[in-house]
Amino acid sequence: MKKAEIVKRNKKRIWCPGCGLFAVEKVISEEVVNMGWSKKDTVIVSGIGCSARISEYFNLDSMHVTHGRTIPVAEGIKLANPDINVVIISGDGDLISIGGNHLFHAIQRNPNIKVFCNNNRVYAMTGGQSSATTEKNEKTKTDPEGRSIEDIDLERVFKEKKNVFFEKTDALNIEDFRKKVKISLKTKNFSFLDIISPCVAHNRRKGFGF
Ligand SMILES: Cc1ncc(C[n+]2csc(CCOP(=O)(O)OP(=O)(O)O)c2C)c(N)n1
Questions:
Q1: Is the pTM of this model over 0.85?
Q2: Per-residue pLDDT tens for 188-205?
């Protein structure tokens, strides 16, 4: 029997042409296959947003949960099924802004869950409002004069916890991205890969001064 593909190739993606999520899907899905993981032993969890739509493109059991709640749902899945690989892919708004509370507690508890954050530094799906990772002075829908505060420094948040894996990469720097996905999938600890990723709609809007 032919092995099922890890992604649904014929399903239309909702993402804009040029969105970093195409690379995110490609690299993570290929590395999940390289780990030998499949529908038998792997669950994908995502929240709400353009990034979060990714779970429906995988041929894996998945949960598309309420905004900001991926981490507690993933922890529940892992607690009930310790042998299952639990992967989260979601956006910065979902994981760091609205779900930030859960992120801090997960860092403390160190569950064996792999988090991939498509960090486009805005709430993209709702039209480009500022998120916790919007950089200072960046113009957005909610900060038309430029963001007045600093973005959250995740490196500092993770620094104290030596066992937890935290790395930054770039969705379009495929080699570096792939290398860090491999490490993340192999770790037995909580892992968070912060993937800086372009939002073409936000960049286009900026060109028109909002
Ligand atoms: C509890 C709740 N608050 C707000 C929303 C509206 N909402 C839908 S998507 C979204 C932004 C998602 O941003 P992010 O997680 O960064 O994903 P992106 O769309 O940028 O990939 C928001 C605020 C919602 N659906 N539920």
A1: yes
A2: 999 999 999 999 999 988
Buried b (16+ CB within 10 A) or exposed e, 69-93: bbbbbbbebbeeeeebbbbbbbbbb
CA distances to 19, 125, 147 from 25, rounded to whole Å, are 11, 17, 30
Closest ligand 1 atom, residue 49 Cα: 19
Q: How many structural domains compose the chain?
A: 1
pLDDT the model gives residue 167:
97
Find the CATH number of the domain harbouring 159.
3.40.50.970
Ligand 1 contact via 126 beta carbon (within 6 Å): yes
Q: Is 48 in the pocket of ligand 1 (CB under 6 A)?
A: yes
> Is residue 40 assigned to a domain?
yes
Is the minimum distance from the CB of 94 to ligand 1 under 6 angstroms?
yes
**Residue listed under structure tokens 């066992």:** 163
Domain-located, residue 8: no
Ligand 1 atom nearest to 21, measured from its CA: 21
Domain assignment of residue 14, yes or no: no
Instruction: Choose the residue to mutate in 126, 129, 194, 196 for probing ligand 1, maximizing ligand atoms within 8 Å of C-beta.
Output: 126
In a domain, 3, yes or no: no
Q: Using one digit for the tens of pLDDT, what is the confidence trace for 41-98?
A: 999 999 999 999 999 999 999 999 999 999 999 999 999 999 999 999 999 999 999 9
